[in-house]
Amino acid sequence: MLLIKGTPAPDFSLTDQDGATHSLTSQRGHWVLIYFYPKDDTPGCTTESCGFRDHFHALKNSGVTVFGVSKDSVESHKKFAGKYALPFPLLADPEMSMIEAYGAWGQKKFLGKTYDGILRISYLIDPDGKIAKVYEKVKPEEHPAEVVRDIAALQSGQ
């Protein structure tokens, strides 16, 4: 089940592509964008991740920490991040603890077949650790610019 705007975001402690451990608690006082994606180096995931790379300076200048999350391994993330020069942490969640806590696992449909998998959803978390915005059914090519617009609006109080 997706998290609801205004509720506390679940804490996590996961390792990124460089072996560093990250948690939500360590980000208190900062805006955080967490985007869940199905698999490293696949077309939609690459488009979305490269979009966040291309908008990274705007997000960083707005005080936003970006985390990409999938169930791929640290090694897979390292290759993916290196291949596309991704400047933010990709968190490995092979046990799917964070993916499940954030409601990012569920039924998907592809070519008429239904199966369970990682849902392409994102959360914008405010400096107090609460869900500020939920992005369901993300469009990879549009999502990064959408987040930049939304963070500007939220920070200006609109």
Can you describe this structure?
There is one protein chain. This protein is α/β, with parallel strands linked by helices and 158 residues long. It has five helices and nine strands. It has helices at residues 43-54, 56-61, 74-84, 97-101, 143-155, and strands spanning 13-15, 21-23, 31-36, 64-70, 90-92, 105-110, 113-118, 122-125, 131-135. The strands form three sheets. It has a five-stranded mixed β-sheet. A two-stranded antiparallel sheet has the order 1-2. The protein is globular and about 40 Å long.
Let me know the CATH homologous superfamily. Answer: Glutaredoxin
User: How helix-rich are the residues, as a percent range?
Assistant: 25-40%
Strand order of the largest sheet: 5-4-3-8-9
The total of beta strands comes to 9
How would you classify the helix and strand content by structural class? alpha/beta
Mean pLDDT over all positions: 94
Number of DSSP helical runs: 5
* N-to-C CA distance: 28 Å
Report the CATH architecture.
Answer: 3-Layer(aba) Sandwich
CATH class: Alpha Beta
CATH topology: Glutaredoxin
Quick one: overall form?
A: globular
Residue stretches low in confidence (pLDDT < 50, at least 5 long) are none
The ordered H/E elements are: EEEHHEHEHEEEEH
Strand content: 25-35%
How many structural domains are formed by the residues? 1
Q: The biggest beta sheet, please?
A: 5 strands, mixed
Query: Using only CA atoms, what is the Rg?
Result: 15 Å
Secondary structure blueprint with pairings:
Layout: E1 13-15, E2 21-23, E3 31-36, H1 43-54, H2 56-61, E4 64-70, H3 74-84, E5 90-92, H4 97-101, E6 105-110, E7 113-118, E8 122-125, E9 131-135, H5 143-155
